[in-house]
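hey m, so remember when u said the tokens were messed up on ur end? i reran from scratch. heres the input so u can diff it against urs
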Amino acid sequence: LATHIWVAITRARKLKSEEQTTLSLPVDCRGRLVPPLPKSYFGNAIHLIHMTTTVGELLNNSNIITTVNLLHENIEAAQRDERIRSKIEEWMENPNLTSVQGIANHILIGSSPRFPVYVSDFGFGPPMCVRSGRGNKYDGKVT
């Protein structure tokens, strides 16, 4: 599905075939570390994976299965304990706040269907609605 969305948005943007396009996906690392983080862990436990290719390669129908397989392999690798730990070590050596907003021809697909936002109660009862706000919207953001 992510590859289909990436292709559809890229096609709709009518980019030149030699331009680059990037797809980013957040990966939840909570249960993938060895040992896994406790269920009560409250901190950040995600990292982004990125795939970049040319528009021409992405839109070439004979490459769609190749792109799906590469994305799948990238996601699988990103969920392994050693990859997660290496990303943490990289960040410790060179801490930065990643911003994908404003990257040309970029698509970020993110959602949190397992995050129980309507169960949270901070003393006022459960929320009536949850919105991410305008600051979390930009061209290429898919939720």
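this time it looks ok to me. The domain at 2-142 is CATH 3.30.559.10 (Chloramphenicol Acetyltransferase). if urs says something different then somethings off w ur setup not the seq
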